[in-house]
Automatic annotation (TrEMBL), chains A, B:
Protein's name in the database: TetR/AcrR family transcriptional regulator
PANTHER family, alphabetized: HTH-TYPE TRANSCRIPTIONAL REGULATOR BETI, HTH-TYPE TRANSCRIPTIONAL REGULATOR RUTR
Keyword terms of this UniProt record: DNA-binding, Transcription, Transcription regulation
Native organism: Actinomadura napierensis
Keyword DNA-binding applies: yes
HTH tetR-type domain residues: 35-94
Domain of life: Bacteria
DNA sequence: ACCTGAACACCGTTCAAGT
DNA sequence: ACCTGAACACCGTTCAAGT
């Protein structure tokens, strides 16, 4: 199938269970067995994504969770639904970190630190998180989860604060910056020296933010 | 299947045929019918990738080319082999452009122009070219084609020249820069306003290059 | 040396029957 | 309301037979 991952990322925390308490379809509480199945599916998906990558066979996941394939499909109509559930806990942590950093003294350092944390998040599961972040950032996307919305809010606030402090020049679009972070994660996902390369690339991005904004975007020719 | 593309990119030029003259396996000239099949497969793959994206069914491609599935498999053992053949002509053009720009007066503008051309290339076929560029950039990759090797050579030369001219500060790794270009293409591949966003992001990258190099890559915490 | 095309394996999706 | 699991559809890969 695919190369295996070295380390298994930490499991999603209580946030996942908070999601499972209410059915994503009805809004009403889930039946106890349905909720158990939901949680088993998310847990086994997390393990399978770690082992096989994004393309882990769905029936393998349902088999490990001890449910039929139709049950997986009922809870998660698309693969992306399942993926988002797996990532939910990690994103919540990122949001919390960002909120804490909003009161840090050095606004520029706070931004830098949060972007590095976001990059670390984006790198999980072979750049899978990066792909989800990226698709959630597209405007016409009605799939952008609540978690992602919060994440972008925090990112924008940190960027605005850094700009007000004078450390970041001119008008960088927060969505652009976050897209770049996801893009870096994607770019290094299979590189042998991935994390050091990602570090250098993020430094390049931070330099671009610090620089006085010069628009040299003349058209192609 | 998938959303359709607006425009069909220009066909690969003579370079593709140059490849087809010798079998990729033996090194000796291909039999006339084999070569015809090779070319028909590349042409139909180009069209199918445009219509369906990267995941165009292989048997659809072989069906349109009028050959059996085994023939496609003989010429192109993996999907990536087929993709590389489709992109070959475009990459050759990019290399030529870069070589011409090596003697331009303004080294910084030359780099900027070539990076924008590289970005345009990376955007073809829904960011498919970006994925191929990116995987070719990984060091342990024995699949990096001759074309890509030339491309990275040209990019490195343009960057070095811009650095010597003083317009680009310090030591940016050419591979990092090209990875960023591919990453930008990937990030905007499905965005509604993709090309304008890509433009802004590339400007951010250029700003990062122009800035005096500051290394703020302190570890995570 | 190359091509054909049937056979196989794999995997996602649906749905009738059951609780 | 939810679950099961067989059935179906789709697609990549192999390989024996043919030229």
């Amino acid at each position: 199938m695919r190369k295996r991952y070295r380390t298994i990322p930490p499991a999603g925390n209580g946030e996942v269970i908070a999601l499972a308490e209410h059915g994503p379809r009805t809004g009403r509480p889930m039946r106890a067995d349905a909720r158990r199945n939901y949680e088993k599916l998310v847990e086994q998906a997390r393990i399978a994504f770690t082992e096989f990558g994004v393309d882990a066979p769905l029936d393998e996941i349902s088999r490990r969770a001890g449910v039929a394939s139709g049950t997986l499909y009922r809870h998660f109509p698309t693969r992306l639904d399942l993926i988002e559930a797996v990532l939910a806990g990690q994103i919540a942590e990122l949001v919390n970190l960002g909120r804490g950093l909003l009161t840090a003294e050095d606004a520029s350092a706070a931004l830098s630190r949060w972007l590095r944390a976001a990059l670390a998040h984006a790198l999980t599961y072979r750049g899978l998180a990066a792909a989800v972040m990226n698709s959630a950032l597209d405007q016409d996307n009605d799939r952008a989860s609540t978690w992602h919305a919060q994440m972008f809010e925090v990112g924008a606030a940190l960027l605005a604060r850094a700009r007000r402090s004078g450390a970041v020049g001119a008008d960088a679009d927060p969505a652009d910056v976050l897209k770049m972070v996801g893009a870096i994660a994607w770019a290094v996902q299979d590189a042998p020296d991935g994390s050091t390369q990602a570090d250098r690339m993020l430094t390049l991005l931070m330099n671009g933010l610090h620089a006085p904004h010069r628009s040299d975007s003349r058209p192609e020719e």
